[in-house]
Amino acid sequence: QKQRSQAAAYPLYVQDEQVGVVEIAYLGQQGLWSAEAILFRRMVLISAVITGLLAILAAAYLGSKLARRLTGRLAVLAAAAEKWGRGHFTSRVCVSGDDELAVLGETMNRMASRLEAQSDLRKKLTSDISHELRTPLSTIQSYLEAFRDGVLPPDEKHLSAVLEESIRLGSLITDLQRLAEAEYSRKAAQFEQLSLNAFLAAEADRYRPFMQQKEINLVLELPDGEVTVQADRGLLNQVLANLLMNAAKYTPAGGQVRLSLTAADGEAVIAVADTGSGIAAEHLPHIFERFYRVDPSRTRATGGSGIGLAIVRELTEAMHGRVTVESTPGKGSCFRLYLPLATDNAKGTFYGNNN
Q: How many Cβ atoms from other residues are within 10 Å of residue 2's Cβ?
């Protein structure tokens, strides 16, 4: 069936002068199958297919490039993690950029640094323990071999020397156990509001007879106002015991140990000062390290293992506090313990330190 054609013509003007005519015509169904229409549809289809193929190829190329870059960076992280798993903590991750993978790489590097520090500390601790145990064991072994071979008689003098070394060995093992307990206490500290005025007064009364036996004057200085802290009573007791015994150990007869309490800037400050021999400046940065001795021969003679002050630091940090030391050779030392002052709603609350 033949359909009627419809057409419209519109003249084109430029500056009031006709330059052409636009004709729009509807040719009906026969127009859709004209040569011009078929060619037009074919060109559009070809263009769409080519454009789609180019888009797919471009997406595949970019995706492949991005995937290679991503998998390459992940491979770097995986390789570093594998090295750390084998104990090679000196290796570091090098991931450029500022995206999530770069942030992950920086975090892994910080973790590796902490692992390296812990590994070095473990190796040093193992070496120190081996050295400390070897000395009394070697002495005991030498005496026993001498007794067996008849080189030395097993008289009271020589047996006393063996007994002294065995006591020293037992003391070292006890100190190591205390250090392990101190590290555990960092995660198991039980906090309460504690009045330091009454606590320090009781501690001074407990240690005063011991100080008097050594002819040392123990002086207690307390403020007029009440000072209350958030602390673990048992841990604080151990800290003060170590500090007071350490002060008594190095203070000569006729000297003085001063136990004082102040409060400032939201912290309570407990000071233990003595008039002992003091500590040289080069030793102060290491004084709280495990097995560190200012004078190894003198410390060994007094029975010290070099662990006491390390325990002080561990327990103080478990109570969210800090400990410092000042010393002048020939005049004495002063250890200061800083603890957070208590708040009204802190009583009966338990805190944990997960570090």
A: 7
